[in-house]
Amino acid sequence: MTRRTWISVLAALVVVGFGVGAGVAFIGSGANTNRSGSPSVEAVLSTPRHYYGRSVVISGTVNAVFGDHALTLGKGTRRGLLVTAKSPPLRKIAKVDSLLRITGTVRKFEVPAWEQWSGSHRNLRLMATFNGRPVVRATKIAVVR
């Protein structure tokens, strides 16, 4: 291999390594992303395995707030994308129909893991309806409007 080929291969590996190592899912365009390149709520709901274990930045309209630790994002459906957070208390910052920008990790929702993580034993029957569905464990929440 020539020196130029080696440099091209090395540059490609570095770019791929940074993309995979960062694990942030906001690269791309098309139906699965919004204008900023972030995945849409619908994309995460329709192809959750693609996002499991990845950090995402996602924007969506609050559909319902379930106490201090859980809410859903999505239009017209109570069974939208579940978002959980330890703090701040979600019911104090999120109102139905407000637009939020959420940064967090997508996981498969399991009630026992949620109970242990959140320390909450409230709304267990409601939370069980989300079992096996995607959840975003929020690390940062910004109110857009």
Describe this structure in words.
The chain is α+β, with helices and mostly antiparallel strands and 145 residues long. Helices cover 32% and strands 28% of the residues. It has six helices and five strands, in the order H-H-H-E-E-E-H-E-H-H-E. It has helices at 3-22, 41-46, 48-51, 90-93, 111-118, 124-128, and strands spanning 55-66, 70-73, 81-84, 99-108, 134-143. A five-stranded mixed β-barrel has the order 1-2-3-5-4. It is globular and about 35 Å long.
* Oligomeric state: single chain
Write the element-wise H/E pattern from the N-terminal end onward. HHHEEEHEHHE
How many helical stretches? 6
**Structural class, from helix and strand content?**
alpha+beta
Parts with pLDDT < 50 across at least 5 consecutive residues: 9-31
Global Rg = 18 Å
Can you count the beta strands?
Answer: 5
| Widest sheet, order of strands | 1-2-3-5-4
Helicity level: 25-40%
Separation of the first and last Cα atoms: 55 Å
Q: What amount of the residues lies in strands?
A: 25-35%
Please describe the biggest sheet, giving its number of strands, its sense, and whether it closes into a barrel. 5 strands, mixed, barrel
Shape from CA axes? globular
Mean pLDDT: 77
